[in-house]
Write a structure and sequence with these properties.
Blueprint: E1 2-5, E2 8-9, H1 18-22, E3 25-32, H2 40-54, H3 60-72, E4 79-86, E5 103-109, H4 116-120, E6 123-127, H5 147-153, E7 161-167, E8 173-176, E9 180-185, E10 188-192, H6 202-213, E11 218-221, H7 225-229, E12 233-238, E13 242-249, E14 252-253, H8 258-267
Parallel strand pairs: 6-7, 6-13, 10-11
Antiparallel strand pairs: 1-2, 1-5, 3-4, 4-5, 7-8, 9-10, 9-12, 12-13, 13-14
Length: 270
């Protein structure tokens, strides 16, 4: 694994870093193909928005230069690049350090390998009991505190399940443990409203942009389990693996539908 800290090779980070102490920061997990990041524009958009909302200053030109250099120095052309931005070093206590000097961390690792059957035939989805907290100030942001996802992923060990479905504390369907969810109801593509909880995935945004571009009917709305039961198609999406159709969830079963297949074809070239 190759690791850079603020543009330099590194193996350690200070114990006073607020990312370690408080989860005070954000991250992007980016798929690299032939030395390039296909979804980079969407990653930048989310990263800038997240840092702005958390009031973490970010020198985007410096970060872009560091990322370009990092990608160019990797031996492999296909890998996963994780970018972490923390608020930097701070003294004990929650008050933000002044001045705030964020740390920029880049990590390279082998990309996960998934069975081809997940994309071709679909997956079984586990029903998680861990509920996502509702916090509009953090909703949508991929911040460093992922304990809800850790707890949810620990709920199942059966390899039958490739992903888990998470709801919020009011019971609304929000997302997968590491994916976003879409379904097709009466011909309309629907994905949950993430105004109160969840992560606005870059693949999710790409799919919404493609739906608009290709005149597919779509909407972002509150989604319940009963709504899901009325769907003709369900799929999960993630920047790493693309789109996985859902063929089974609880007592429900679906076939891989035409809208899912169309979107799979469209993102192959993105």
């Amino acid at each position: 694994m190759s690791i850079w800290l603020n543009g330099q090779l590194a193996e350690t980070i200070s114990l006073a870093d607020r990312g370690l102490a408080y989860g005070d920061g954000v991250f992007e997990t980016m798929k690299v193909v032939d030395g390039k990041i296909p979804l980079l524009d969407w990653h930048w958009q989310r990263l800038l928005n997240s840092c702005q909302r958390l009031q973490i200053p970010l020198d985007i030109r410096l970060l872009q230069a560091e990322l370009d250099s990092f990608l160019s120095t990797q031996a492999d052309l296909d890998f996963t690049c994780k970018l972490i931005i923390t608020r930097g070093l701070g003294q004990r206590g929650y008050a933000q350090p002044k001045p705030c000097l964020p740390n920029r961390i880049l990590l390279a690792s082998a990309s996960p390998v998934w069975p081809s059957s997940y994309a071709e035939e679909g997956i079984c989805l586990f029903e998680c009991q861990t509920a996502l907290a509702r916090q509009p100030l953090l909703a949508g942001i991929k911040h460093l505190n992922r304990l809800e996802q850790v707890l949810a992923r620990n709920e199942w060990q059966d390899s039958k399940y490739a992903e888990g479905l998470m709801r919020d504390t009011q019971g609304w369907v929000i997302e997968g443990v590491f994916s976003n969810i879409f379904c097709v109801i009466n011909g309309c593509l629907v994905t949950p409203d993430l105004s109160d909880s969840g992560v606005e995935g870059v693949r999710r945004q790409q799919i919404l942009d493609l739906a608009k571009m290709h005149a597919l009917s779509y909407k972002v709305a509150k989604l319940s389990l009963s709504d899901l039961a009325q769907a003709s198609e369900v799929f999960m999406c993630n920047s790493s693996y693309g789109i996985w159709p859902v063929r089974e969830f609880s007592t429900q079963h679906w076939l891989v539908g035409p809208i899912t297949r169309k979107l799979q074809r469209l993102i192959e070239y993105k």
